[in-house]
Model the fold of this input.
Amino acid sequence: MANAGCAAWVVGPYLPANSCNTRAALSAGHIYERSDVTAPLIEKTLQSETAGSQTADLGDLPEWNLADLYPGPDTAEFSADLERARQQADTFAQRWKGRLASLAAHDTAGLAASIAQYEDLSDLIGRIGSFASLHYVGDTTDQERAKFYGDTQQALTEISTTLLFFELELNRIDDDAMVMAMKHPDLACYRPWIEDLRKERPYQLEDRIEQLFHEKSLTGRAAWNRLFDETMAGLRFDIDGKELSLEPALNLLVNPEAEQRQAAAEELARVFDQNIRLFTLITNTLAKDKDISDQWRNFEDVADSRHLANRVERPVVEALVSAVVEAYPRLSHRYYAMKAKWLGMDRLCHWDRNAPLPNEDTRTVPWTKAKTRVLEAYAGFAPEMADIASRFFDGNWIDAPVREGKSPGAFAHPTVPSAHPYVLLNYQGKTRDVMTLAHELGHGVHQVLAAGQGALMAPTPLTLAETASVFGEMLTFRSLLDDETDPKRRKALLASKVEDMLNTVVRQIAFYCFERKVHSERKKGELTSGQLGEIWLDVQRESLGPAIEFRPGYEVFWAYIPHFIHSPFYVYAYAFGDCLVNSLYAQYQQAEDGFAAKYFDMLKAGGSKHHSELLKPFGLDASDPSFWQMGLTMIENMISEIETLDQTGQ
Done:
């Protein structure tokens, strides 16, 4: 389902992860995605791995129409925009380089004009990069697509190198001079972006070093990311005589038959182990690459660069992590002990953790019913929300079928404000697939609403980017629950939701703890595959509890989690978003008229406001430790409700 598990496509070939310009990298078109493909997103039964957009049970599945960006990769329109971006970048640098401090002091209108031009260029570059990425993920095994994507990355890296001076030079302007300049009405509209950008100042390097980091990213981090992606896409798993790619193989971990789950887990472990030296090398290389960047920029903690990109303070994240870790026994340990009992086991083998629940509704949900369910749930909250979500269906902004070579999982890509978002799914007709649709459409609605902020301020920090997606998912779940009258099915539905929340909160915080240990240990030297496996198992034992038995082979399952490779420490954003939405939803249930208006104002703000300012109208404060307890209490209460139903024999 929705809360974890997606191919990682952190877009930013032209503004790499190493760049100090983290805010700009987000504005370039960050894809909001999932992290643990073993967690709920893959909890679907295997339907088909054949190409095409239709099956007898699912109906017609939509494929996206990228022509709203460009007609195709080898078209005059794409080539013309790429050349226009080159020329405009050169002209921009010739006009503004070396002049910004003078403009701040003597020509504020000119400084505002330079930012407006930079924003227009960001939109154009983002459109080009978005198309290349979306075209590539449609089939990552296709060599022509891979070449097109790589060539576009190279071209955009060269273009953005020309523009690299702009944010660096803006940040060198004296504080007092910038404060005075922002009083000018032409510049005031960019105040949130400027103030946000200047948070990078303590970590900004000399221009030539920034340029070196930027240009080398193409043959450094970006190349290792691509190697991981293409290796994963090319893996094949032989299960009961069928050759499967990663996603269908993972899907078998939720097969009703225990023998199938075990066979899938053992084959996944075998293939991962065959490639473990490569994945170990990739992990070591990228962890060291990040460490070098962190040292040059004087980040104190291994996760501080992520916190800066998320515009969230380290103590806030530490409070979240501490609250979740402290709650492990009350949440995951308690729930999995119940599940083992339901399945007639003393302990769950690791391949049984996501086994179908007794009385779970395993009926196939056709695409049209999934669409109707989500739109009706959205409309029940606010007609405007459903109207925006409808555009994704009407405009072919969704790519739903499972196809050979297609990126696994699900994501929502905002592209750029001058265009519209796109959603990728691998829809296989299970209830959790419906929830995935609700989740990604929540991202899409958020992205549409925030587009009015423009290319520089529309992108939302990851900690708040999950708000709309999880909220949309919660609306859909409550709609399903309200319609369910059978007590046993209701219990199964509640249990399924609890599993999703555990995968979103407990599982993702465990991943964050794993990353912290890996990056900290990497400072001492390279880690062996065995060391990585031991760290992985230690974290899993602590987070999932004694009711889970980790059989041989599970020690290599860290290797395919894409966020560890593409966006270190991204994962805590899921827990942040889930706990936030739990608190928001509790308020919605008790709120008088006006909640929806405040909610839409929050989404429309995009990245123009800090999380404290956005949450204030709801009376919420993420810096207060009790804030996290509210979200965790909702999960605990749902587990208690399941226990009550269980004790009454329902």
Q: What stands out?
A: Residues 119 and 543 are 44 Å apart (CA to CA). The beta strands are 32-33, 54-55, 59-60, 237-239, 242-244, 348-349, 398-399, 411-413, 422-424, 548-549. The first helix runs from residue 22 to 27. Confidence is low (pLDDT under 50) at residues 1-54.
